[in-house]
Task: structure prediction
Amino acid sequence: MHFEYLIGLRYLRARRRERFVSLIAVISLAGVALGTFVLTVTLAMMSGFQEVLRERLLAFTPHITIEKSDAGLWDPEKLAPQIKALGGVVAVAPYVSSQVMAVSTTVSGAPGFVAGGELRGVMSERTGMLAELKQTLVSGSLAALERQTPVIVNDNGVKRSVNLPGAIIGKTLAFDLGLAPGDIVTVVSPASLGGIGAPRLKRFVVGGMFYSGLYQFDSALIFVDLKQGRALLADEPSLESGLEVRVANIFDAPAIAGRIAALTGPGFRIANWTETEAPLFSALKLEKLTYFVVLLLMVLVAAFNIVATLVMVAMERRKEIAILRAMGARGRSIAAIFLCEGAILGGGGTLAGVGAGFIAAFLIGHYKLIHLPADVFMVSTLPMRLYPANFVSVAIATAGLSLVAAAYPALKASLLSPVEVIRYE
Result:
C-alpha cells in the first residue's frame, strides 16, 4: 500500500485534541449516506410506479394497431395470419372502436343516467388479446360477450322478453350509470346525436364489470362482441377499425411494427404504444430525472461537509505536511493523501447509503409495508422496483461528487510551502 493511503487513513483517526474534526468527518459520512439512501429509495419507488402504470395502461391499449390509412374497406382477417407468424407476436385480432354514449334504463323503461364512453368491439375467443381484461374482472366472464341473454324489457309500458348481447363495462362507469350485472345499458352512436339520419342505438346486458385502477379506462370502456360493435358502428365517421397486435416483449413493439409495415406495404397506418402513449411516458421519465437531480443536490450539501472536514484536517496537519514536503514528498503525493480521505468518506457513505437503500426498498416492496388508498394511487401498497442501473448510477454520481469535493482541499494542501510553515510554526 502506498504511503499516501496509509497517511490518509491515519489522518481520519483523530487524536484527543482533534475530536471535533473527527466528529465533522462522521457527520460528513452520515450526510452522504443519508442522501444516497433517500435517492436510491426514491428511484426504486418511481421505477415501481412507472412500471405499474405501464402495465395497467398497456393492459387495455394495443401494443400495435394496423389501420387502413385511407379509411377504406378491407378484410383484416386476411392479413392476421401473416402477422401472427412474425417472431415476438403473441396474438392478433380485428377490432372496432368509437366514442359512444351509454344510457341506463329505469324500471319503467325510461332513460336513466347518461355518460360518455368508448365502445370496443373485440373477439373474446382470442383470449391472448383479452388476457389482462380477464384478470381485472370483478364480476362476470368473457363468455358473456358471445352469448345472448334473455331479459325482460319495458317498451312504452309493454313488457316483453328479448335476447340481448352481453357487454363488459368498467366498474366506475357502472357506478355512474347505476348499473349492476344483468341490467340493460343502451349504447348510442354519436352520429345520431348530430341530428343526421335516424338514431342508431343498441341495447346490451351488463355481463361483467372490470376494475383496472385507471380511471380513464374504468369510467369509459365498454367491451362488446366484434359483430355487435360492427353492426352498431358500420358507417360511423369516427370509427376506428383494423387489427390490434400484442407482443411478448412490449419494448420490441417498435421493431415489430417496422416489420409489419414492410409486410403490409403502403396504404396502412402502423402505430405502436411508444408513439400513442409517448407524452405520458415522456412525462414520467422527466419526473424521474427531476427527482434524481433534486435529491442529488442533497448529496451535494453533504459533499460540502467533506470540503469543510478536509480543510480543517489540512489546517490541523500543516506541520506534518511541511515535514513530509521537506522529506521529499511531492505535491501530488500530498494531494493524494486528501483525495484518499475524501474517497474514504464519500465511498463509505455511498456504500452505506446504497446498501441501506437496497435493503429498505426490498423490504418495502416484498413485504408491502406501506399501504396507500387504492382509489387515489391505483395501487394498495407502495410499488418498488430494484433495477441495478439505478443503484449503480447513484453510487457513481455520489462517489464523483465526493471526489470533486475533495479536490479543493487536496490542491490547497499540495501548494503548501514547507519553508513558510517551518519558519513561523
The longest strand covers residues 89-105. The radius of gyration is 33 Å.
